[in-house]
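2.7 Reproducibility. Because tokenized structures are sensitive to small changes in the input, we list the exact sequence used for Phosphoribosylglycinamide formyltransferase 2, including any N-terminal residues retained from the expression construct. No trimming or masking was applied before prediction.
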Amino acid sequence: MKPKLLHVLGAGPWQLPTVRLAKSIGYRVLVTDVYAERPAYALADFHEVVDITDLERTLQAAIDHRIDGIICDTTDVGVPTAAFVAERLGLPGIGYETALNFTHKGRMRQLTENAGLLVPRYRVISSPVALRNAASEIAYPLIVKPVDNQSGRGVSRVSNDSGLEAAFQAAKSCSRSGDVLIEACVVGHEIIVDGFVVSGQPKILGVADKEPYPDAVTVSARIHYPDGERRPDLDRIQAATSATLSALGLLNGVFHAEFIVQARDVVPIDVAARGGGCMIYSHLIPHVSGINVMRAMIELAMGDLPAIEPATVPRAANIEFIRMPPGRLAEIFGVNAAAALPGVAAIHFNVQVGEQIGALDDKDCRPGYVVALANTAAQVIDVSRRAKSLLSVRMDGTAGPVAVF
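Resulting structure tokens (single pass, no recycling of outputs):
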């Protein structure tokens, strides 16, 4: 009897750990991706060149290969597709309507507001005609973002009329539907909550503090998971997380949520029904919580409800982001020395030598990051800083290396 076949949406570097783990468990793997050449093609048993946002073509590939389960655990844009295919084939999934709740920010705002949660004032618009009216109704400062993208693409903070039109056009250019969300800027401390829902019961596996860049407030300079000392706001965070997930309809599966914590309120900003990026899903949460969420997602996709019992005393983890001077990247120095430091789990660069380094317009413009894991917050911050201090770059036209920052 052939081993069961798992369909993984996406075949890029972020899907490689999922494919490797599924294979190690004993499953066969089909991957689909829009690009003709992807690293997971060589690792999987089968692959098809199919856009993971194309519902019908993905469904046909799943039917042709007679899959036993389907997963999209690392990218928002494939979450509705995985849910659609699972629903049509009678396989485990979160449900297509639920997937839309998590991937369309307008729906997300409406549902959480209807459930009685505090949400920022907002409008969903699609044309410049409605732009000024929406801005005047909500009042500056504003956050302008596409309703259906990820990684901060097309997100801007606007302080006055002069930047409004450019922010709208940037958001619209990144919106698959053409809709743009305009909302009030919520003041407070931004956190990330990662976890897993089993039979409607959410388990929090990690709570991280986000520290923004002073000159790019919608982009994080650091994401820090502290150690086991109990947060004074944990009860409020747990209540807001449970209420948000219930409003959006997630009964089983991983989640990655962003909230703003104020003096009295915990305000939902964005919630994804997939794992967090920058190795949060694959490295940080397993270390912090003791739960292999990737394995849990594979089990869920293949019809088994996983047991999720996180460690009672979480460990610490940290992502320290890297910036470089503007210009064309000529050389990177110190990677091996930094990676050799005890506690450094990974050093990742989003850019290669020869590429242009520009302004920090969104999260995807960050050139790279250091991932560190340790038992305590003090240890993990120290490791991150020491690793980053060993890294330097040379830009075209300059005489020598300069430190990353």
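The chain has twelve helices and 20 strands.
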